[in-house]
Design goal:
Strand content: 15-25%
Number of domains: 3
Largest sheet: 8 strands, mixed
Radius of gyration: 29 Å
CATH architecture of the largest domain: 2-Layer Sandwich
CATH superfamily of the largest domain: Bira Bifunctional Protein, Domain 2
Number of helices: 19
Strand order of the largest sheet: 10-13-14-21-18-17-15-16
Helix content: 25-40%
Structural class: alpha+beta
CATH topology of the largest domain: BirA Bifunctional Protein, domain 2
Number of strands: 25
Length: 617
């Protein structure tokens, strides 16, 4: 019998109550599975029509009836043949027979019954339905059977349950705040990015406002890299398939890549030979036909840059950095705004060093990642050390090289005093890695920065440097990306700050609010002076009252507003209102205002109150 925590047991029972209500309202429904989750529970169901919000209300009301009936959860076991017969008699053989086949022969086959509902289930459950007192259905989403897009698409009904009504209400309030912070919503409201169906799902269009945000992040990290001796490079978006065969990215990860591109002349030749799509795919995979691939990684091209000239131990380490755009084929159901896309730009770098230099270079990468996260207020994180699973066949290279790489990475993490968890099976296919798993303002975790040690790709590409002994030696390679990807990192920042960005990142840093039309020319002149100093300044020249202008700037999350009236113009001052800096000077002179704004930008100070819309500090 499966063991569950009390909360999992409660939520699993709620999933059975949901299924009971579903079959009462929709007897034709075909059920798949209904497990508890970290946030609640769900049940996958096949229906001949789509469910909507009003349907969830009806289902939830029926669930309350089931709870009120105080049905007992009863467990019983059957033979496999009896289980098959029972599932057919219940009309639930479509998906449940497959789930039955998943149960190993040496495990018991059990069902749970509550009232008129019986389900194939390992358990466990609460004793009676009345124990499930605080629950809520949240949404319906599409989900493929077994997560396979070639299988039937089902409707997944999500819900949550807690031991008390107070805990449920707190969770629902948390969800509402998350909705208010949703980067897709804020991104649309603030015109930061677009995803256009005519361009393609999962492909991001950065607007002028979002472009500023992205460029500021790039400029910030580029400045840090210049200080640390990195050289910036640029590589193409597409490369020959053989390059990625050598690296191991193809064909081992072909399911998560865009299909290869075959040159026109070669494609025509193959067509005249009667080569069909399936045969072409096989030939591309076995290497008898070559082609090109939208790059899923930047590292093979950086490797070729390293290999393009001879190196000695005196010239190492070589540090190559690129804001390189890569492409992955994500299923449409998994795409999510900026945080799950098909084309994304990594703040990528690769370091080629001697084994003796490895520890120092890893430490430099870890320090840089820590500094960047803390500068941006993402200072709540855990460090995950991903190690190889010796029993898995997904990893390349010798056990000796893996042991050396894991030892170096572990030593660097410990020397810098990071608390970390070591997780077997979380390594990249070519080497172990450190991931920074960041907690945002709502307590949600995001895997962002990464540092990876690699002895294997230098071997696969036969890289070398000349040592002090005048002999050829193999360099070690470090893969490093503090942001991870600009798209994902920006999506997390939008939600973390709820769109209330620190001054240095804000697309519009200050908005001048002239109190009447007569003052607009003065405001425009002041804005021009400020722009000449590098500030991003807007002027609200609308013929509106001051209150309307303030509300508009607040809605558009401009961090600072400078009100200009006749008295301010005469005195050479502004009336400053700041959304993120309660200690801002109220009536600074123009020079004081410039100096304050410069200090605000250069210090990269965090907002004092990056809270959700409508809250006050």
């Amino acid at each position: 019998m499966a063991t569950m925590s009390p909360l999992e047991e409660l939520r699993h029972s709620a999933a059975h109550i949901l299924a009971t209500a579903l079959l009462r309202l929709y007897p034709e429904a075909k059920l798949d599975i209904g497990p508890p989750t970290r946030e609640g529970f769900y049940y996958d169901v096949e229906l001949d029509h789509s469910l909507h919000a009003e349907d969830l209300e009806r289902i939830e009301e029926e669930m309350r009836r089931v709870v009120k009936e105080n049905q007992k959860f009863e467990r019983f076991e059957t033979t496999r043949a009896e289980a098959e017969e029972l599932l057919r008699s219940l009309g639930q053989e479509r998906f449940k027979l497959g789930r039955l086949a998943d149960i190993p022969d040496d495990e018991a086959i059990s069902f749970y019954r509550n009232g008129e509902f019986t389900d194939l289930c390992a358990g466990t459950h609460v004793p009676y339905t009345k124990k499930v007192k605080a629950f809520k259905l949240l949404q319906v989403a599409g989900a493929y059977h077994r997560g396979d897009e070639n299988q039937p698409q089902l409707q997944r009904i999500y819900g949550t349950a807690f031991p008390t009504r107070e805990e449920l209400e707190a969770y629902l309030a948390h969800l509402e705040e998350a909705r208010q912070r949703d980067h897709r919503r804020i991104g649309k409201d603030l015109h930061l990015f677009q995803i256009d169906e005519e361009v393609g799902q999962g492909l991001v269009l950065w607007t002028p406002e979002g472009g500023i945000l992205r460029q500021e992040l790039q400029d910030y990290i580029r400045g840090r890299l210049n200080q640390q001796g990195y050289a910036q490079v640029f590589t193409p978006h597409i490369g020959k398939l053989g390059l990625f065969r050598t690296s191991g990215h193809f064909p081992f990860y072909k399911d998560s890549q865009f299909p290869p591109v075959v040159e026109g002349e070669e494609l025509h030749r193959l067509a005249t030979e009667g080569c069909g799509c399936a045969e072409l795919a096989n030939r591309l995979e076995d290497g008898s036909v070559d082609g090109y691939l939208l790059k899923p990684m930047n590292c093979p091209m950086h490797i070729r840059l390293y290999a393009g000239r001879p190196h000695s131990y005196r010239s190492l380490p070589v540090r190559l950095a690129e804001f390189g755009t890569v492409y992955r084929w994500e299923q449409s159901g998994e795409l999510n705004g900026l945080t799950r896309v098909r084309g994304f730009t990594q703040d990528d770098a690769h370091i080629f060093c001697t084994p003796d230099q490895l520890g120092g270079e890893i430490a430099g990468c870890l320090r840089l990642t820590r500094e960047i996260l803390e500068t941006l207020g993402l200072d709540q994180y855990r460090v995950r050390l991903g190690l190889r699973d010796p029993d898995s066949d997904k990893y390349v290279g010798s056990a000796e090289n893996w042991e050396r790489a894991e030892a170096a990475l572990t030593a660097a993490v410990e020397d810098l005093g990071f608390a970390y968890s070591a997780e077997t099976g979380e390594a990249a296919f070519y080497g172990p890695k450190v991931d920074f798993v960041v907690e945002d303002a709502l307590g949600r975790e995001w895997q962002l920065g990464t540092v990876q040690v690699d002895y294997n790709l230098p071997e696969r590409f036969d890289l070398a440097y000349t040592g002090a002994d005048n002999q050829k030696h193999r360099p070690v390679m470090i893969h490093r990306a503090p942001f991870g990807s600009l798209e994902r990192f920006t999506g997390v920042l939008i939600e973390h700050f709820a769109g209330n960005f620190p001054t240095w990142l804000a697309p519009e840093q200050v908005r001048l609010l002239p109190m009447n039309d007569e003052l607009v020319p003065f405001a425009e002149e002041l804005a021009a002076d400020l722009r000449a100093e590098g500030f991003r300044v807007g002027v609200d020249g609308h013929a509106d009252k001051l209150g309307a202008k303030i509300r508009r700037a607040e809605t558009e999350k401009v961090p600072h507003m400078a009100v200009i009236g006749a008295r301010e113009r005469e005195a050479g001052r502004v009336s400053l209102r700041s959304r993120i800096r309660p200690d801002a000077p109220e009536q600074p002179t123009l020079e004081e205002f410039r100096a304050w704004l410069r200090g605000e930008v250069d210090s990269k100070r965090l907002p004092v109150r990056p809270e959700a819309e409508g809250k006050k500090a």
